[in-house]
Amino acid sequence: MVDVAPVFPRAEHAQLDRAGWRGKLSATALLVLVPLGVFLAYTSMSTVEMPLRRPGYATLVLWSALLVMFRWRRLKVPSRTAKAMLWWVALLVGYAAISTLQPIIYPGYIAGDAASLLLPMFYLLLAYSAPELFEGRTTAYVLGGLMGLAACVGALSPDYAGRFEPPSVLLITMAWVWLVKSGTGLGKVLSWLCLLAVFALAFESQKRTHVVVFFIAGAVIFIVKRRTGLVIAATVAAVLLVAAYNDLYRPIDFMGMFSDTRFKTLTEGQTDTSVENRYLEAKDAIRTAKDEWTGFQFVTGYGHGATYKPFYSYIDRTVTDDMRNHNIHIGPVLSFFRYGLIGFSIFLWLCFAIFREHIRLRRRRYGPTGPELFYVVGMGMYLLDFCVRNAIVDPGFSLTIAGFLYICRRRTRLGGGKSSPAERRTVVQSLEAC
Asked: Is pTM beyond 0.85 here?
Protein backbone atom coordinates (compact mmCIF):
# COMPACT_ATOMS: atom_id res chain seq x y z
CA MET A 1 0.00 0.00 0.00
CA VAL A 2 1.50 3.31 -1.07
CA ASP A 3 0.27 6.59 0.36
CA VAL A 4 0.50 8.83 -2.67
CA ALA A 5 -2.90 10.47 -2.56
CA PRO A 6 -1.64 13.97 -1.67
CA VAL A 7 0.22 14.27 -5.01
CA PHE A 8 -2.21 12.48 -7.35
CA PRO A 9 -4.92 14.09 -9.46
CA ARG A 10 -8.42 12.73 -8.83
CA ALA A 11 -8.57 10.45 -11.88
CA GLU A 12 -5.21 8.92 -11.10
CA HIS A 13 -6.17 8.46 -7.45
CA ALA A 14 -9.25 6.50 -8.54
CA GLN A 15 -6.93 4.30 -10.57
CA LEU A 16 -4.64 3.98 -7.55
CA ASP A 17 -7.57 2.98 -5.35
CA ARG A 18 -8.43 0.18 -7.74
CA ALA A 19 -4.79 -0.86 -7.87
CA GLY A 20 -4.59 -0.84 -4.09
CA TRP A 21 -6.54 -4.09 -4.05
CA ARG A 22 -4.79 -7.21 -5.28
CA GLY A 23 -7.10 -9.21 -7.48
CA LYS A 24 -5.96 -12.77 -6.83
CA LEU A 25 -6.85 -15.15 -4.03
CA SER A 26 -3.90 -17.24 -2.88
CA ALA A 27 -4.04 -20.66 -1.29
CA THR A 28 -2.54 -19.21 1.90
CA ALA A 29 -5.29 -16.60 2.22
CA LEU A 30 -7.89 -19.29 1.62
CA LEU A 31 -6.33 -21.56 4.25
CA VAL A 32 -6.54 -18.67 6.74
CA LEU A 33 -10.06 -17.50 5.96
CA VAL A 34 -11.96 -20.78 5.61
CA PRO A 35 -11.10 -22.12 9.11
CA LEU A 36 -11.83 -18.66 10.51
CA GLY A 37 -15.24 -18.64 8.82
CA VAL A 38 -16.03 -22.16 10.02
CA PHE A 39 -15.15 -21.19 13.60
CA LEU A 40 -17.28 -18.03 13.46
CA ALA A 41 -20.23 -19.98 12.06
CA TYR A 42 -19.82 -22.69 14.69
CA THR A 43 -19.61 -20.28 17.62
CA SER A 44 -22.51 -18.17 16.33
CA MET A 45 -24.91 -20.99 17.23
CA SER A 46 -26.36 -20.29 20.66
CA THR A 47 -26.63 -24.03 21.30
CA VAL A 48 -22.84 -24.39 21.40
CA GLU A 49 -21.65 -24.50 24.99
CA MET A 50 -18.61 -22.43 26.02
CA PRO A 51 -16.46 -25.50 26.90
CA LEU A 52 -16.83 -26.62 23.28
CA ARG A 53 -15.75 -23.23 21.95
CA ARG A 54 -12.37 -23.30 23.65
CA PRO A 55 -11.08 -26.41 21.81
CA GLY A 56 -12.27 -24.85 18.58
CA TYR A 57 -10.37 -21.65 19.30
CA ALA A 58 -7.27 -23.63 20.27
CA THR A 59 -7.50 -25.54 16.99
CA LEU A 60 -7.72 -22.26 15.06
CA VAL A 61 -4.62 -20.88 16.79
CA LEU A 62 -2.64 -24.08 16.24
CA TRP A 63 -3.68 -24.17 12.59
CA SER A 64 -2.44 -20.59 12.12
CA ALA A 65 0.87 -21.49 13.82
CA LEU A 66 1.29 -24.47 11.46
CA LEU A 67 0.67 -22.21 8.46
CA VAL A 68 3.38 -19.84 9.70
CA MET A 69 5.80 -22.74 10.04
CA PHE A 70 4.92 -24.01 6.57
CA ARG A 71 5.43 -20.56 5.00
CA TRP A 72 8.47 -19.66 7.14
CA ARG A 73 11.00 -19.57 4.30
CA ARG A 74 8.81 -17.25 2.24
CA LEU A 75 8.28 -14.68 4.97
CA LYS A 76 9.64 -11.25 4.09
CA VAL A 77 9.23 -9.40 7.37
CA PRO A 78 10.78 -5.90 7.69
CA SER A 79 13.54 -5.80 10.29
CA ARG A 80 11.72 -3.32 12.56
CA THR A 81 8.57 -5.43 12.48
CA ALA A 82 10.58 -8.59 13.20
CA LYS A 83 12.20 -6.93 16.23
CA ALA A 84 8.82 -5.75 17.49
CA MET A 85 7.48 -9.29 17.19
CA LEU A 86 10.42 -10.69 19.13
CA TRP A 87 9.79 -8.15 21.90
CA TRP A 88 6.11 -9.12 21.89
CA VAL A 89 6.90 -12.82 22.28
CA ALA A 90 9.38 -12.03 25.06
CA LEU A 91 6.71 -9.97 26.83
CA LEU A 92 4.20 -12.82 26.60
CA VAL A 93 6.75 -15.29 27.95
CA GLY A 94 7.52 -12.91 30.81
CA TYR A 95 3.84 -12.65 31.64
CA ALA A 96 3.59 -16.44 31.65
CA ALA A 97 6.18 -16.41 34.43
CA ILE A 98 4.31 -13.64 36.28
CA SER A 99 1.12 -15.71 36.09
CA THR A 100 2.65 -18.27 38.46
CA LEU A 101 2.46 -15.71 41.27
CA GLN A 102 -1.35 -15.81 41.33
CA PRO A 103 -2.94 -17.30 44.47
CA ILE A 104 -4.82 -19.88 42.37
CA ILE A 105 -3.42 -20.92 38.97
CA TYR A 106 -5.67 -22.04 36.12
CA PRO A 107 -3.50 -23.44 33.27
CA GLY A 108 -6.40 -23.37 30.81
CA TYR A 109 -7.02 -19.67 31.37
CA ILE A 110 -3.29 -18.91 31.08
CA ALA A 111 -2.96 -20.81 27.79
CA GLY A 112 -6.11 -19.22 26.40
CA ASP A 113 -5.06 -15.66 27.19
CA ALA A 114 -1.58 -16.19 25.74
CA ALA A 115 -2.99 -17.80 22.58
CA SER A 116 -5.40 -14.90 22.00
CA LEU A 117 -2.43 -12.49 22.03
CA LEU A 118 -0.36 -14.67 19.68
CA LEU A 119 -3.04 -15.11 17.00
CA PRO A 120 -2.77 -11.51 15.64
CA MET A 121 0.98 -12.01 15.25
CA PHE A 122 0.42 -15.24 13.29
CA TYR A 123 -1.97 -13.44 10.92
CA LEU A 124 0.50 -10.59 10.49
CA LEU A 125 3.33 -13.00 9.68
CA LEU A 126 1.19 -14.79 7.11
CA ALA A 127 0.45 -11.45 5.44
CA TYR A 128 4.15 -10.97 4.76
CA SER A 129 4.19 -14.20 2.77
CA ALA A 130 0.78 -13.61 1.16
CA PRO A 131 0.04 -9.85 0.99
CA GLU A 132 -3.32 -10.47 -0.67
CA LEU A 133 -4.58 -11.60 2.75
CA PHE A 134 -5.09 -7.92 3.59
CA GLU A 135 -4.86 -6.33 0.15
CA GLY A 136 -6.83 -8.75 -2.02
CA ARG A 137 -10.21 -7.66 -3.39
CA THR A 138 -11.26 -11.28 -3.88
CA THR A 139 -10.01 -12.06 -0.38
CA ALA A 140 -12.25 -9.30 1.00
CA TYR A 141 -15.25 -10.76 -0.84
CA VAL A 142 -14.52 -14.24 0.54
CA LEU A 143 -14.09 -12.86 4.06
CA GLY A 144 -17.34 -10.92 3.81
CA GLY A 145 -19.18 -13.97 2.50
CA LEU A 146 -17.91 -16.17 5.34
CA MET A 147 -18.81 -13.60 7.99
CA GLY A 148 -22.23 -13.13 6.38
CA LEU A 149 -22.77 -16.88 6.47
CA ALA A 150 -21.82 -16.94 10.15
CA ALA A 151 -24.31 -14.13 10.85
CA CYS A 152 -27.09 -16.03 9.06
CA VAL A 153 -26.28 -19.23 10.98
CA GLY A 154 -26.54 -17.26 14.21
CA ALA A 155 -29.89 -15.78 13.20
CA LEU A 156 -31.24 -19.29 12.53
CA SER A 157 -30.24 -20.56 15.98
CA PRO A 158 -31.49 -18.08 18.61
CA ASP A 159 -31.44 -18.81 22.34
CA TYR A 160 -34.46 -19.20 24.61
CA ALA A 161 -34.91 -15.41 24.79
CA GLY A 162 -34.84 -14.96 21.02
CA ARG A 163 -31.36 -13.39 20.97
CA PHE A 164 -28.57 -14.55 18.70
CA GLU A 165 -25.01 -13.67 17.74
CA PRO A 166 -24.99 -10.38 15.79
CA PRO A 167 -22.96 -9.67 12.64
CA SER A 168 -19.31 -9.19 13.50
CA VAL A 169 -17.90 -5.69 13.82
CA LEU A 170 -15.72 -6.38 10.79
CA LEU A 171 -18.75 -7.33 8.67
CA ILE A 172 -20.53 -4.13 9.71
CA THR A 173 -17.50 -2.08 8.65
CA MET A 174 -17.17 -4.02 5.40
CA ALA A 175 -20.80 -3.30 4.49
CA TRP A 176 -20.24 0.46 4.90
CA VAL A 177 -16.94 0.39 2.98
CA TRP A 178 -18.57 -1.50 0.12
CA LEU A 179 -21.31 1.14 0.00
CA VAL A 180 -18.95 4.12 -0.27
CA LYS A 181 -16.54 2.35 -2.63
CA SER A 182 -19.12 0.83 -4.98
CA GLY A 183 -19.81 2.59 -8.24
CA THR A 184 -23.21 3.05 -9.80
CA GLY A 185 -25.77 0.62 -11.13
CA LEU A 186 -26.04 -2.95 -9.91
CA GLY A 187 -23.02 -2.67 -7.58
CA LYS A 188 -24.57 0.23 -5.68
CA VAL A 189 -27.92 -1.57 -5.38
CA LEU A 190 -26.25 -4.72 -4.05
CA SER A 191 -24.22 -2.70 -1.55
CA TRP A 192 -27.37 -1.04 -0.21
CA LEU A 193 -29.12 -4.40 0.10
CA CYS A 194 -26.10 -5.82 1.94
CA LEU A 195 -26.02 -2.85 4.33
CA LEU A 196 -29.72 -3.14 5.10
CA ALA A 197 -29.39 -6.89 5.68
CA VAL A 198 -26.52 -6.33 8.11
CA PHE A 199 -28.56 -3.71 9.95
CA ALA A 200 -31.56 -6.05 10.17
CA LEU A 201 -29.42 -8.83 11.62
CA ALA A 202 -27.79 -6.47 14.13
CA PHE A 203 -31.13 -5.03 15.27
CA GLU A 204 -32.93 -8.37 15.51
CA SER A 205 -30.05 -9.92 17.47
CA GLN A 206 -30.92 -7.53 20.35
CA LYS A 207 -27.21 -6.90 20.92
CA ARG A 208 -27.19 -3.16 21.47
CA THR A 209 -23.47 -2.60 21.08
CA HIS A 210 -23.51 -3.76 17.47
CA VAL A 211 -26.47 -1.53 16.62
CA VAL A 212 -24.58 1.46 18.02
CA VAL A 213 -21.40 0.40 16.20
CA PHE A 214 -23.39 0.16 12.96
CA PHE A 215 -24.31 3.84 13.02
CA ILE A 216 -20.96 5.06 14.37
CA ALA A 217 -19.10 3.14 11.65
CA GLY A 218 -21.16 4.84 8.96
CA ALA A 219 -20.62 8.27 10.50
CA VAL A 220 -16.85 7.76 10.82
CA ILE A 221 -16.50 6.55 7.23
CA PHE A 222 -18.43 9.52 5.86
CA ILE A 223 -16.36 11.92 7.99
CA VAL A 224 -13.09 10.34 6.84
CA LYS A 225 -14.36 10.57 3.27
CA ARG A 226 -15.08 14.29 3.86
CA ARG A 227 -18.80 13.92 3.50
CA THR A 228 -19.74 15.44 6.84
CA GLY A 229 -23.01 16.78 5.46
CA LEU A 230 -24.08 13.25 4.73
CA VAL A 231 -23.55 12.31 8.38
CA ILE A 232 -26.40 14.61 9.40
CA ALA A 233 -28.65 13.26 6.67
CA ALA A 234 -27.64 9.71 7.54
CA THR A 235 -28.48 10.30 11.21
CA VAL A 236 -31.99 11.41 10.34
CA ALA A 237 -32.32 8.52 7.92
CA ALA A 238 -31.08 6.11 10.59
CA VAL A 239 -33.78 7.16 13.05
CA LEU A 240 -36.42 6.78 10.37
CA LEU A 241 -34.94 3.44 9.32
CA VAL A 242 -35.11 2.04 12.86
CA ALA A 243 -38.64 3.32 13.27
CA ALA A 244 -39.80 1.98 9.91
CA TYR A 245 -38.13 -1.36 10.45
CA ASN A 246 -39.61 -1.76 13.92
CA ASP A 247 -43.17 -0.81 13.00
CA LEU A 248 -43.83 -0.09 9.35
CA TYR A 249 -47.55 0.53 9.32
CA ARG A 250 -48.32 2.37 12.55
CA PRO A 251 -47.48 5.98 13.50
CA ILE A 252 -43.87 6.35 14.57
CA ASP A 253 -43.28 6.44 18.32
CA PHE A 254 -39.61 7.28 18.71
CA MET A 255 -39.46 6.05 22.31
CA GLY A 256 -42.00 3.25 22.08
CA MET A 257 -40.38 1.68 19.03
CA PHE A 258 -37.84 0.05 21.37
CA SER A 259 -40.48 -1.39 23.72
CA ASP A 260 -39.96 -4.95 22.48
CA THR A 261 -36.16 -4.75 22.40
CA ARG A 262 -33.30 -4.67 24.90
CA PHE A 263 -33.19 -0.86 24.42
CA LYS A 264 -36.37 -0.68 26.53
CA THR A 265 -34.52 -0.33 29.83
CA LEU A 266 -32.55 2.63 28.49
CA THR A 267 -35.51 4.47 26.96
CA GLU A 268 -37.67 3.99 30.06
CA GLY A 269 -34.97 4.96 32.56
CA GLN A 270 -34.77 1.52 34.17
CA THR A 271 -31.62 -0.09 35.55
CA ASP A 272 -29.91 -2.14 32.87
CA THR A 273 -28.71 -5.34 34.53
CA SER A 274 -26.28 -6.15 31.72
CA VAL A 275 -24.49 -2.81 32.05
CA GLU A 276 -24.66 -3.05 35.84
CA ASN A 277 -23.03 -6.51 35.83
CA ARG A 278 -20.18 -5.20 33.70
CA TYR A 279 -19.63 -2.37 36.14
CA LEU A 280 -19.70 -4.77 39.10
CA GLU A 281 -17.15 -7.04 37.40
CA ALA A 282 -14.80 -4.10 37.06
CA LYS A 283 -15.45 -3.10 40.67
CA ASP A 284 -14.59 -6.60 41.87
CA ALA A 285 -11.40 -6.69 39.78
CA ILE A 286 -10.19 -3.40 41.27
CA ARG A 287 -11.16 -4.58 44.74
CA THR A 288 -9.16 -7.79 44.28
CA ALA A 289 -6.14 -5.81 43.05
CA LYS A 290 -6.22 -3.63 46.16
CA ASP A 291 -6.50 -6.64 48.46
CA GLU A 292 -4.02 -9.05 46.85
CA TRP A 293 -1.46 -7.16 44.79
CA THR A 294 1.98 -6.12 45.90
CA GLY A 295 3.64 -2.95 44.63
CA PHE A 296 5.21 -4.29 41.44
CA GLN A 297 1.97 -6.05 40.39
CA PHE A 298 0.35 -2.67 39.79
CA VAL A 299 2.95 -2.35 37.02
CA THR A 300 2.76 -5.91 35.67
CA GLY A 301 -0.73 -7.06 36.66
CA TYR A 302 -1.62 -10.65 37.51
CA GLY A 303 -0.59 -11.98 34.10
CA HIS A 304 -2.35 -14.45 31.81
CA GLY A 305 -5.36 -16.20 33.28
CA ALA A 306 -5.89 -13.64 36.05
CA THR A 307 -8.95 -14.25 38.22
CA TYR A 308 -10.67 -12.11 40.84
CA LYS A 309 -13.02 -12.67 43.78
CA PRO A 310 -16.66 -12.06 42.73
CA PHE A 311 -17.89 -10.09 45.72
CA TYR A 312 -20.45 -7.83 43.95
CA SER A 313 -20.79 -9.52 40.56
CA TYR A 314 -21.48 -13.14 41.43
CA ILE A 315 -22.66 -14.94 38.26
CA ASP A 316 -22.90 -18.65 38.89
CA ARG A 317 -22.02 -19.88 35.38
CA THR A 318 -18.68 -18.04 35.30
CA VAL A 319 -17.48 -18.69 38.87
CA THR A 320 -15.00 -21.51 39.48
CA ASP A 321 -15.13 -24.04 42.29
CA ASP A 322 -12.53 -21.92 44.10
CA MET A 323 -14.86 -18.91 44.01
CA ARG A 324 -12.82 -17.02 41.41
CA ASN A 325 -13.91 -15.41 38.15
CA HIS A 326 -11.90 -14.87 34.97
CA ASN A 327 -14.49 -12.97 32.95
CA ILE A 328 -14.19 -9.17 32.61
CA HIS A 329 -16.25 -7.44 29.92
CA ILE A 330 -14.84 -3.90 30.14
CA GLY A 331 -11.67 -3.96 28.06
CA PRO A 332 -9.62 -1.20 29.73
CA VAL A 333 -10.17 -2.79 33.17
CA LEU A 334 -9.29 -6.20 31.73
CA SER A 335 -6.05 -4.77 30.31
CA PHE A 336 -5.08 -3.30 33.66
CA PHE A 337 -6.05 -6.30 35.80
CA ARG A 338 -4.20 -8.84 33.67
CA TYR A 339 -1.24 -6.78 32.52
CA GLY A 340 -1.03 -3.81 34.89
CA LEU A 341 0.14 -0.37 33.86
CA ILE A 342 2.13 -1.99 31.04
CA GLY A 343 -0.98 -3.47 29.49
CA PHE A 344 -3.03 -0.32 30.06
CA SER A 345 -0.26 1.75 28.40
CA ILE A 346 -0.39 -0.54 25.35
CA PHE A 347 -4.15 -0.03 25.23
CA LEU A 348 -3.72 3.76 25.33
CA TRP A 349 -1.04 3.59 22.63
CA LEU A 350 -3.41 1.60 20.42
CA CYS A 351 -6.15 4.20 20.99
CA PHE A 352 -3.74 6.95 19.96
CA ALA A 353 -2.54 5.05 16.89
CA ILE A 354 -6.09 4.42 15.69
CA PHE A 355 -7.10 8.05 16.23
CA ARG A 356 -3.94 9.23 14.42
CA GLU A 357 -4.65 7.02 11.42
CA HIS A 358 -8.22 8.34 11.15
CA ILE A 359 -6.90 11.90 11.14
CA ARG A 360 -4.29 11.06 8.51
CA LEU A 361 -6.88 9.48 6.24
CA ARG A 362 -9.17 12.49 6.54
CA ARG A 363 -6.37 15.01 5.85
CA ARG A 364 -5.28 13.29 2.68
CA ARG A 365 -6.37 15.25 -0.32
CA TYR A 366 -8.29 12.51 -2.13
CA GLY A 367 -9.09 10.17 0.72
CA PRO A 368 -8.14 6.60 1.63
CA THR A 369 -7.90 3.52 -0.53
CA GLY A 370 -10.16 0.55 0.11
CA PRO A 371 -7.87 -1.56 2.33
CA GLU A 372 -6.94 1.46 4.46
CA LEU A 373 -10.55 2.46 5.02
CA PHE A 374 -11.55 -1.11 5.81
CA TYR A 375 -8.92 -1.93 8.42
CA VAL A 376 -8.45 1.51 10.00
CA VAL A 377 -12.17 2.11 10.57
CA GLY A 378 -12.67 -1.56 11.45
CA MET A 379 -10.00 -1.29 14.14
CA GLY A 380 -11.67 1.83 15.51
CA MET A 381 -15.00 0.03 15.75
CA TYR A 382 -13.41 -2.94 17.50
CA LEU A 383 -11.90 -0.49 19.98
CA LEU A 384 -15.39 0.75 20.84
CA ASP A 385 -16.58 -2.84 21.12
CA PHE A 386 -13.62 -3.63 23.39
CA CYS A 387 -14.80 -1.03 25.89
CA VAL A 388 -17.88 -3.14 26.71
CA ARG A 389 -16.85 -6.65 25.63
CA ASN A 390 -13.71 -8.77 25.71
CA ALA A 391 -13.00 -8.64 21.99
CA ILE A 392 -9.51 -10.12 22.37
CA VAL A 393 -10.89 -13.66 22.14
CA ASP A 394 -12.70 -12.82 18.88
CA PRO A 395 -10.65 -14.10 15.89
CA GLY A 396 -12.17 -11.28 13.84
CA PHE A 397 -10.47 -8.83 16.19
CA SER A 398 -7.16 -10.69 15.74
CA LEU A 399 -7.48 -10.47 11.96
CA THR A 400 -8.43 -6.79 12.09
CA ILE A 401 -5.58 -5.68 14.33
CA ALA A 402 -3.13 -7.63 12.15
CA GLY A 403 -4.55 -5.95 9.06
CA PHE A 404 -4.39 -2.55 10.74
CA LEU A 405 -0.73 -2.98 11.67
CA TYR A 406 0.10 -4.36 8.22
CA ILE A 407 -1.59 -1.50 6.36
CA CYS A 408 0.09 1.12 8.59
CA ARG A 409 3.50 -0.51 8.23
CA ARG A 410 3.28 -0.74 4.45
CA ARG A 411 2.57 2.97 4.03
CA THR A 412 5.34 5.01 2.39
CA ARG A 413 5.19 8.57 1.21
CA LEU A 414 6.19 10.53 -1.86
CA GLY A 415 7.66 13.76 -0.54
CA GLY A 416 6.69 17.33 -1.18
CA GLY A 417 4.10 16.88 -3.92
CA LYS A 418 6.83 17.27 -6.57
CA SER A 419 6.47 13.93 -8.35
CA SER A 420 6.12 14.12 -12.10
CA PRO A 421 3.25 12.54 -14.10
CA ALA A 422 5.70 9.91 -15.33
CA GLU A 423 6.65 9.03 -11.72
CA ARG A 424 2.99 8.81 -10.73
CA ARG A 425 2.22 6.54 -13.67
CA THR A 426 5.14 4.31 -12.62
CA VAL A 427 3.68 3.94 -9.12
CA VAL A 428 0.23 3.07 -10.43
CA GLN A 429 1.64 0.56 -12.93
CA SER A 430 3.75 -1.08 -10.24
CA LEU A 431 0.68 -1.46 -8.02
CA GLU A 432 -1.41 -2.85 -10.87
CA ALA A 433 1.36 -5.36 -11.52
CA CYS A 434 0.73 -6.75 -8.01
From this structure: no
